[in-house]
Amino acid sequence: MSLADHPAPASAVRIPEAIAAARAGRDLDVADAEALLGAVGDDLEALLAAASALRDEGLTAAGRPGVITYSRKVFIPLTTLCRDRCHYCIFVDTPSQLRLLRKPVYMTPEQVLTVARQGAALGCKEALLTLGDRPEDRWPEARAWLDEHGYTSTLDYVAAMARLITAETGLLAHANPGVMSADELRMLRPTAPSMGMMLETTSRRLFEEPGQVHYGSPDKDPDVRLAVIEDAGRERVPFTTGILVGIGETVHDRAESLIALRDAHRRHGHVQEVIVQNFRAKPRTAMRAAPDASLLEYVAAVATARLVLGPRMRVQVPPNLSDETEFELLVRAGADDWGGVSPLTADHVNPERPWPHLDDLARRTAELGFTLRERLTAHPEFVRDPDGWIDPDLRPAVARLADPDSGLAGDAAPALRRGGAPAASRRSGGDLARLAEAAASAPGDLDDGDWVRLLTATGSGLDTLTATADDVRRYTVGETVSIVVNRNLTSTGFRAVATGEPGTFTLDDVAAITTDAWDLGATEICVQGRVAASEDPRAYLDIARTVHETAPRLHLHAYRPQDVWDLADRGGLGLDGALAALRDAGVRSVPGTGVKVLSERARRAAFDGDLEIDRWETGIRAAHAHGFRSTSVLFYGHVETASERVAHLRRLRELQADAAAAGSGGGFTEFVPIPLPAPLGGVPLVAGRAPIDEHRAMVAVSRLLLTGSIPHVQVPWTRLGTAATAVLLRSGGDDLGGTLLDGRVRPDAGVEQGLELPIPEAARLAASLLRPFRQRTTDYREPDAERKAAR
Prior knowledge:
about 45% helix, 7-stranded parallel sheet, about 15% strand, globular, 9-stranded parallel sheet
């Protein structure tokens, strides 16, 4: 990306001298840093070059040239109560909001271990404990909970949960509980090999002036936060801190903050990384209308941090707060760490910004000329000096997970302790609540009979089941309700020559439909359906090419396994050839529909027109092997048994595990439990159980059995209506699928014509549940600003 077209201000004359001083190893002062932070054009190019060179020198000196690191983590939001009132924060709740959300004051130990165990099973090594500052000082509800459970303070509970996590799962805790005293740091040190707290800014104006972002937040006093950082150094705690760019601070404040962090580290040697984080405005906050930090201002801050802090400091940029296209600038600015990235849990502080897929992050890092390596929560320099930095109680756990030579993460898996009270109680005939708890914590430990019992729960047992599943949803994928703006096109209606039949269309219509969908703000067009036998099977490719050439940025989600098989067989391409041709034609992901339930008995009994099960599996495996992500479904409420539903879900887990092991980037993005209506469906598993309870049990069991495997559970609002959909979003569901725009051109060409859920309606549905809402892309990323504006 060229920056030379941005003219430099006259004040930039100091910039070359500051760059030269940093390259020579001399300390920069506040005026130097302030000048660098304002760099634009050629000066910014020079700043980036110097920052890159310093970063590379530091990595070489550390013995890992060309390596950018990250930590594979789970995010555990221990409590969302806080005594502060920051104007940009969406993480915090009030007690009344918790009651409306049916959310606990604090996560219970069982809920904490559920997330930690799931993370350990996915290879995570860090448990990030994040929470609000000292909620018991503001909220009587927090004080009462702590008293009832025998904890003197929130930080006392943090220490207990950190110990529990490491003892039961082998994960290493990173404690991020806000402001701590020296005594509290000393108390926490044996429980967490690293801790953290963002400085954010040294600006007293933002803290003292009414209306500013930190006004009324006692823990955001810059002097208090700087004292914590100093105390952490004295207590020999490997510490993560950083600045927040774009919250109203001045460039001078930003420069002063970086110098303060450098000087604190100079005194104690304990700052293991400095995060340079860009502000992102969030809905339902006082700063919701504030502009995000500008890209070039942010990049200049990253590069300036590198020059101020020197080659040996790790400079982190959170990858989910920037678009992938911006990574190049951030790496050129001297960043060498992506921070914690989770394959399981959402970023609960920034729920609207999903983590990148780890394979995508590795690919993009490699494209930028670097190798992605996993580290532990404590950085290698501290891991390799355990006597100086790691508490004796934690040294065995750290050594187990570390590579002894590099200090980065090694190959050993966390020491996950199996069994425990929930399973023992279940095996001795414990109640359904304990069975649900066991399902949440270790779904692989339950047998088919256990899952059947959960699927057939009624009354208070069903209420417990759905509440447990919803907690798992809350603490993994988060509170956000998502939807993609899309349109359907049913390829069965394609005709090479116009016939005028209802529902039919030509390639000219495909182009017009695609243009209309793009103009309406869609990010996806979904095409599926077997092309008529009278049509050339190359029509699958012709449709795909037309969509892609008409709107190259529109995501083409196209063709079920039976459609692909039709192209493979009638087109003479073979399965691999068909999939390769579809990718070349513009297909980017595939629907995983085509079978009702993965049971040949059920297929032969009621759906003999469906694709044979082994053909479906072969087709979906091949699609995943070609790097396609796909949906997955189960149609329920017909001839299938509860055991067949369980077997279907287990098979999806197996297919997902195989896709992950193959490393192609393919796999299931979501699962959709779809009720089949009468006359073929509507058959309850439990005689007399209300339809909504049938759906609640199915969604809840889907969440529990698939957690840690398929992240998203979609609620099919087209089959259920919005009232039932709201109930199921409280039973473990998190996604609404697509808006299904009919469009203004040939609306009859879509299979679900007449059913639309526009963005405003979807947002109102989420708001009725007090849940955040976001528009997503097909693969659950963030749409670009243009697509959001176009809706």
